[in-house]
Design a protein that fits this description.
Strand content: 15-25%
Strand order of the largest sheet: 2-1-3-4-6-5-10
Protein name: 3-methyl-2-oxobutanoate dehydrogenase (2-methylpropanoyl-transferring)
CATH class of the largest domain: Alpha Beta
GO molecular function: branched-chain 2-oxo acid dehydrogenase activity
Number of helices: 12
CATH topology of the largest domain: Rossmann fold
Keywords: Oxidoreductase
Oligomer: single chain
Pfam family, one: Transket_pyr
CATH architecture of the largest domain: 3-Layer(aba) Sandwich
Distance between the termini: 45 Å
CATH superfamily of the largest domain: Thiamin diphosphate (ThDP)-binding fold, Pyr/PP domains
Shape: globular
Cofactor: thiamine diphosphate
């Protein structure tokens, strides 16, 4: 099977979808001739032409607004916001228009758009290139939110998102584009070419939206993670020598609550980790759901490990970034409670 980076897997998903359906169009800032700032769309314009893969003005509101109108008339736009940090001008279009079209039209119209955006830190991008805004989307009824952790999932989930009749926010952890970064920034990153989840079929396949995956089976504590933090969780469990079960959510909305509940009822303990700031982060929703559904199975308080409640600090990147050390200490704390 072909080995791909996450960049190549994302590109392959768009390629397969564009070849299969002439209504699929790709556009955004620098995604055409240049192939995107991370090269995720490289070669698509040359292959499919300037009417199906094209550059736009620097206007996120315009990109998403145009995509909504195109979707209402039968096209399937897959648009790129160059960094997740730049999506705020488009937030009105996403929340007031895209998310509500099915509801406000009583099902007469849908909005089959995908909004791709690189998310998260770990690349010394500072405060304007490192944000993780996923919780801003999970609060909005009508949006689906996906955060893959590896190339295999990225391709299958992106094809599923493009084929979905409703708007999907597809957040790509840019620290994972070239390898499964586990938070040990002082060590070389293993490339996807040497990782099992770097094996990606070349053709069409999908992964169901709303289904989590257990990446590590354990009996002592459940770790709920997504994106880059999945690899951090795996490293922390190994470093701390704790029999942790690691759940990769993959999809935040819809959420695979059954997998979380079954795991916590088995282990009796739960740690939730994400890179976004702590307050009102998506981890708070997971904690609330675990508390509501697993209270009588819990043997210790639920713990969250997350970014600080500050802008992403360039000078203190690795203190802010929830690494294996911070997560390992939380696991030990929960086990000793």
């Amino acid at each position: 099977m072909t080995r791909m980076t996450m960049i190549e897997a994302v590109r392959s998903a768009m390629d397969v979808s564009m070849a299969q359906d002439d209504n699929v169009v790709v556009f955004g800032e620098d995604v055409g001739y240049f192939g995107g700032v991370f090269r995720c769309t490289q070669g698509l314009q040359a292959k499919y032409g300037k009417t199906r893969c094209f550059d736009t003005p620097i206007s996120e509101s315009g990109i998403v607004g145009a995509a909504i109108g195109m979707a209402a008339y039968g096209l399937k736009p897959c648009v790129e916001i160059q960094f997740a940090d730049y999506m705020y001008p488009a937030y009105d279009q996403l929340t007031q228009e895209a998310a509500r079209i099915r509801y406000r039209s009583n099902g007469d119209f849908t909005c089959p758009i995908v909004v791709r955006m690189p998310t998260g830190g770990g690349i010394f991008g500072g405060q304007t290139h490192s944000q993780s805004p996923e919780a801003l989307f999970t609060h909005v009824c009508g949006l689906k939110v996906i955060v893959p952790s590896n190339p295999y999932d990225a391709k299958g989930l992106l094809i599923a998102a493009i084929e979905d009749p409703d708007p999907v926010m597809f957040l790509e952890p840019k620290r994972l584009y070239n390898g499964p970064f586990d938070g040990h920034h002082e060590q070389p990153v293993i490339p996807w070419s040497k990782h099992d989840l770097g094996e990606v079929p070349e053709g069409h396949y999908t992964i169901p939206i709303g289904k989590a995956e257990i990446r590590r089976v354990g009996a002592a504590v459940t770790v709920v993670a997504y994106g880059t933090m999945v690899h951090v969780a795996l490293a922390a469990a190994e470093d701390a020598d704790i029999d942790a079960e690691v759940i990769d959510l993959r999809s935040l909305l819809p959420l695979d609550l059954d997998t979380i509940i079954n795991s916590v009822q088995k282990t009796g303990r739960c740690v939730v980790v994400h890179e976004a700031t702590l307050t009102s982060g998506f981890g708070a929703e997971v904690v609330a759901l675990v508390q509501e559904n697993c209270f009588y199975h819990l043997e210790a308080p639920i713990v969250r490990v997350a970014g600080w409640d500050t802008p992403y600090p360039h000078a203190q990147e690795w203190d802010y970034f929830p690494g294996p050390g911070r997560l390992g200490r939380a696991l030990t704390e929960v086990m000793e409670a």
